[in-house]
TrEMBL record:
CDD domains: ABC_NrtD_SsuB_transporters (cd03293)
UniProt source species: Comamonas odontotermitis
Top-rank taxon: Bacteria
Family: Belongs to the ABC transporter superfamily.
GO MF annotation list: ATP binding
Record bears the keyword Transport: yes
Pfam family, one: ABC_tran
Keywords recorded for this protein, A-Z: ATP-binding, Cell membrane, Membrane, Nucleotide-binding, Transport
Protein name stated in the entry: NitT/TauT family transport system ATP-binding protein
Region annotated Disordered, chain positions: 1-22
ABC transporter domain span: 33-265
C-alpha cells in the first residue's frame, strides 16, 4: 500500500519494511488497530512468569488485510486476544479506532478454527443470530440472513442444521454469520486450517471477495505462510517467544487475486522463499 511504500522508499531489497515506523499508516486517523510497544507477561497460579510479547508494535490501516505468521507458541493468538480485550498488556497500549481497548468492541468480528455455530439452530437462525442479538427485529434479521446465505452460496441450505453440512459449508455459514454484522475489523485465527486443500482455496477466494466488498480491516493469523502471502497486503513475521515484530513484508501482488493462480506468480515464489528464510531462523532458535 502506498503509505507503507513511501515510508521505506529507501529500503532495499523491496518489499521488506522495517518493524517499527514502516508499519504505520500515514495518519493516526487511518489506523484501525495500533499496538504501541506492547509487552505481555502471563503469571501462572504457581507464580511462574511467561513473557509472551515483548515491545511489540504494529499498526493496521482501515481497510487493510494483514497476516501474522510466526513459530508455534510465539504469541500470534495473544495479539488477537489483546485486540478483543480478553487480555490486557502488561506494558504499552493497544488501540482500536484510536481508542484504548478496554472492552470488547461491537465493530469487531471473529472467525476461528473451531466453528462458532449453534448446533441446534438452522443455518438461517445461525446467520440471523448476530443481528437479532444487536436488536434487529426477527423478521428483518431473517431476511438479511437469507441475503447473506445466498451471497456465500448456501441458498438451498437455509433450513439445514450444522451437522448436515460439510466443513467447508459450515465455514461459509461462519463467514455469513460474521459479515452480516458488517464488522469494521475482522479477526481470524487459523480459520481454514481444518479444511482440505481444495475447500481451503475456495474459502480463501470467498473471504477475499467478501472482504473487498466490505471495506473492513482483517487480521489473519496463520501457520501457513503461502496462505498469508496470497491473502494479505502485508505479512508481519514474529520472532520466537517472547515474540516481537521481526519484519514486515509488503505484498504488492495485484488484486483481485485468484488463489489457485497467485501461487505460481514469480513474485509470490520469491516472497515465499524470503519470508520462509526469516521464519526458519526463528523456528531453529526454539
Ligand atoms: N493464559 C496463559 N497463561 C500462561 N501462558 C500462556 C497463556 N496463554 C498463552 N500462553 C503462552 O504464551 C505464548 C503465546 O501463546 P499464543 O497462543 O499466543 O501462541 P501462538 O503463536 O498463537 O501459538 P500457535 O501457533 O501454537 O497457535 C505461548 O508460549 C503460550 O504457552
Amino acid at each position: 500500500m502506498s503509505y507503507a511504500t513511501e515510508a521505506v522508499a529507501s529500503q532495499r531489497p523491496s518489499n521488506i519494511l522495517q518493524p517499527q515506523g514502516a508499519a504505520a499508516p500515514a495518519h493516526p486517523a487511518d489506523a484501525a488497530i495500533e499496538f504501541d510497544k506492547v509487552s505481555l507477561r502471563f503469571i501462572a497460579p504457581d507464580g511462574t512468569a511467561t513473557l509472551a510479547l515483548r515491545n511489540f508494535s504494529m499498526r493496521v490501516a482501515k481497510g487493510e488485510f494483514i497476516a501474522i505468521v510466526g513459530p508455534t507458541g510465539s504469541g500470534k493468538s495473544t495479539t488477537l486476544n489483546l485486540i478483543t480485550s480478553l487480555l490486557q498488556p502488561t506494558v504499552g497500549e493497544v488501540r482500536v479506532m484510536g481508542k484504548k481497548v478496554e472492552q470488547i468492541d461491537p465493530r469487531i468480528g471473529f472467525v476461528f478454527q473451531a466453528d462458532a455455530v449453534f448446533p441446534w439452530k438452522s443455518v438461517r437462525d445461525n446467520v440471523a443470530a448476530g443481528p437479532i442479538f444487536r436488536g434487529t427485529p426477527r423478521e428483518q434479521a431473517l431476511k438479511l440472513a437469507d441475503e447473506w446465505i445466498h451471497r456465500v452460496g448456501l441458498a438451498n441450505f437455509g433450513n439445514h442444521y450444522p451437522h448436515q453440512l460439510s466443513g467447508g459449508m459450515r465455514k461459509r455459514v461462519a463467514l455469513a454469520q460474521t459479515f452480516i454484522n458488517q464488522p469494521e475489523i475482522l479477526l481470524m485465527d487459523e480459520p481454514f486450517s481444518a479444511l482440505d486443500m481444495q475447500t481451503r482455496t475456495l474459502m480463501q477466494d470467498e473471504l477475499l471477495r467478501l472482504w473487498s466488498a466490505s471495506g473492513g480491516s482483517v487480521v489473519f493469523v496463520t501457520h501457513d505462510l503461502e496462505e498469508a502471502i496470497a491473502l494479505a497486503d502485508r505479512v508481519f513475521v514474529l520472532t520466537a517467544r517472547p515474540a516481537t515484530l521481526k519484519r514486515v513484508y509488503e505484498i504488492d501482488l495485484p488484486r483481485p487475486r485468484i488463489m489457485s493462480e497467485v501461487r505460481y506468480d514469480p513474485q509470490f515464489i520469491d516472497l515465499s522463499k524470503r519470508i520462509w528464510d526469516d521464519l526458519r531462523e526463528e523456528v531453529h532458535i526454539q
